[in-house]
Here is the input.
Amino acid sequence: MTQHSNEELRLINQLLLAIFLVTDFGYFLYLNHPVFPWFTLAGAAVGLAIIVYCWSGTKYWLFNTILLLSTAVFSVVYNFNAIL
Here is the structure.
């Protein structure tokens, strides 16, 4: 594999891992609580983003960005009944 292919695979893996983590944790919270605890989901994502940023700097910027964006999206998705 070329260097370019390795970098693209690394970016795709970062993107999918961030979405997978937020989706699964949000679904777990959705199933185990009568009212969705969106603050717990947001706090866990922000905390993980801070930890990853402190350990690696800007090396995993895509992971942090997608983690925070998908947290915002899935907070709305899982809490949609309360918004209406």
About this structure: Residues 29 and 37 are 7 Å apart (CA to CA).
